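discrete fold record:
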Amino acid sequence: MLYLFWYKIGMSWTVETLNETVDAEVGALPEDMQARLARIAKLIED
């Protein structure tokens, strides 16, 4: 899976998916893997 990461002023990061294809692939993952991915994204953003 590909994700875009970029740096913003104020030391914060934003995590978002590349496109609808990636959204569909993430949506097709088992719930536990989606939860892990969401947790990692949250860690990056915080």
In short: The chain has a mean pLDDT of 85. The chain has one domain: 3-45. The chain is about 50% helix and 25% strand.
